[in-house]
Design brief:
This protein is mainly α. The chain has helices spanning 2-11, 14-28, 39-50, 62-82, 85-88, 91-114, 123-130, 135-144, 151-175, 181-204, 208-215, 224-242. Helix content is 74%, strand content 0%.
């Protein structure tokens, strides 16, 4: 009985269960049913089924929360690697930001309707959530469909970038309570300026020696560009956690 209990405990461990769901979803996505469902969609559905609101097999324990936090960081890292500012910027990016503002308006309308239901507690938060694009979720779907390098794929990536950047700005302005609205707006403008400056530097400042140094180990075991990008991302994670 003790050995069986240990085995059941290992199988029910949150990390093992989550990865098992990922494998099952990947296999189920290959079943020919006439409609191809992306593995990410099946992962979400299976996660809901085994979660506390349906079968109650998995609960948000500390290890699972930590796994989700670092997994989200890795997902944003991979999505950022796919985002091409040179091809997706300019007019497409301006159009998608206007489209995102339209999605915010639709989200506010939907939140106003849902606010009449007792289950809705924060309609403004719901409106911002409805305007979020989940770029990290879209990138694998586009890659599997070989659409990343097409005009459609670049447009979706540009829209996804707006749908990630805009909600962060909105959440920071709407829900921050440590400063006045004017101070928060000023901090957001500084943040936008830093983001624009970083994009400008990344697209224009490319010292030949540094480029040669990085590309020389791109496909070797060291993979210096990936390690440096990971170090930079981890620094941002630590900074955000501190704030």
């Amino acid at each position: 009985v003790t050995e069986q209990g240990k085995a059941l405990h290992l199988v029910a461990h949150p990390i093992f269960a989550v990865l098992a769901i990922a494998v099952v979803a990947a296999l189920a996505a290959e079943i020919p049913i006439g409609v191809r469902v992306p593995p990410g969609v099946l992962m979400l559905l299976l996660g809901v089924v085994v979660g506390p609101h349906v079968l109650d097999v998995l609960r948000p324990e500390a290890s699972l929360i930590a796994m989700g936090f670092y997994g989200t960081c890795a997902l944003f890292f991979m999505a950022g690697m796919e985002l091409d500012l040179e091809r997706g910027g300019g007019r497409p990016l301006a159009l998608v930001f206007r489209g995102w503002l339209l999605s915010v308006a639709v989200g506010l309308l939907a939140a106003a309707v849902l606010n009449q239901l007792p289950m809705t507690r924060s309609p403004l938060f719901l409106a911002i959530a409805l305007s979020t694009s989940a770029l990290g979720f879209l990138v694998p779907i586009l890659r599997d469909a070989s659409e990343l390098d097409t005009t459609f794929g670049r447009s979706v990536l540009a829209a996804g970038a707006a749908g990630e950047f805009g909600p962060v700005m909105a959440m920071s302005l709407v829900f921050a309570r440590d400063f006045t609205t004017l101070q928060e707006a000023g901090l957001m403008l500084v943040f936008v300026g830093l983001a624009a400056f970083s994009a400008f530097v990344a697209l224009t400042v490319r010292p030949p020696r540094l480029v040669t140094f990085l590309t020389a180990a791109m496909h070797r075991g060291a993979q210096r560009p990936g390690l440096l990008a990971g170090l930079f991302l981890s620094g941002l994670v630590v900074l955000v956690e501190g704030f």
